[in-house]
Design brief:
With 267 residues, the protein is of the alpha+beta class. 42% of the residues lie in helices and 33% in strands. Strand 3 and strand 4 (138-153) form a beta hairpin. Helix 1 (2-18) runs antiparallel to helix 2. It is elongated, with a radius of gyration of 42 Å.
Length: 267
């Protein structure tokens, strides 16, 4: 290689020096032809030596795939409540007007309590019948049903339910418990961290048993990190039961936030 570089230097110098010669000089062609031939030969030798190495591709690394899981438990501090106002009357107008009057009273009370996510979830009006044996059904009247839902902190739920019944609610269709959005968001991040660490621990356990070392993470996939569903209260609460109780007890529970992560790790 040193010899080739020396020849290149000499030939280049020879060509450069020839520029000072007049092109009509009788020795111009004789001096430049050997130099050009030597330069082309050396260039071919250098290119031939570099080309094989330049075409080599990097061998892809070996990878291990590991999936981890994270679970974070948080308290359910909010109660999602569904109320109904059901009224029966002889005519549809009377039933609907009575239900509207009661519903307005209940909603006005709930607004004074500054509950969250207050909304009407249903308005129904249906005829009612009796079914005498061996006879056709007989119309007896109409039933109007208005439904309302709202959210309140669990420590206030019992007292608000009692007062809502006194203001006209006739049925509690359901109570479910859920954590706050901020608590769920924080728990999701913690669960993702736990899942990632769990996947790394699993990978290390396998690689250590095979005398391999963990290298860089090549691929990351978040498999699941969804918002948990509210936990329903398994209890049928009627108007009579609520009226006779001093204060309706409502106690929340705990909610689990889960996450799953898959890592592709080189070794």
């Amino acid at each position: 290689m040193a010899r080739i570089q020396q020849l290149l230097h000499l030939s280049t110098g020879q060509i450069s020096a020839s520029k000072w010669w007049n092109i009509s000089h009788p020795h111009w062609r004789a001096n430049t032809k050997p130099a050009l031939a030597l330069l082309l030969t050396a260039s071919f030798v250098l290119t031939a030596g570099i080309a094989p190495g330049a075409t080599q591709e990097r061998k892809p690394p070996r990878t291990l795939t590991a999936s981890g899981r994270g679970i974070v438990t948080i308290p359910t501090t909010l109660s999602q409540i569904r109320l109904a106002i059901e009224v029966s009357a002889k005519t549809p107008t009377a039933a609907q007007q009575a239900a509207a009057t009661r519903s307005t009273r209940v909603i006005d009370y709930l607004k004074t309590q500054r509950v969250d996510k207050l909304q009407t979830t249903g308005i129904n009006l249906n005829p009612t019948y009796t079914y005498p044996p061996n006879s056709t059904p007989q119309l007896t009247g109409y039933t109007a049903n208005n439904s309302i839902s709202f959210r309140v902190t669990t420590d206030r739920a019992g007292a608000i339910l009692d007062a809502a019944v006194k203001n006209g609610a006739t049925r509690i269709d359901g109570v479910s418990f859920v954590a706050s959005e901020q608590a769920i968001s924080t728990a999701q991040i913690q669960a993702l961290k736990q899942a990632t660490q769990d996947a790394q621990r699993q990978a290390d356990a396998v690689l250590d048993s095979l005398n391999f070392k963990r290298r860089e993470v090549i691929g990351i996939q978040i498999n699941s990190n969804s918002t948990p569903a509210p936990i329903p209260l398994a209890q049928d609460m009627t108007r009579q039961r609520l009226v006779t109780a001093a204060t309706t007890p409502v106690i929340g529970g705990e909610q689990q936030v889960e996450a799953s992560v898959t890592l592709d790790i080189g070794y």
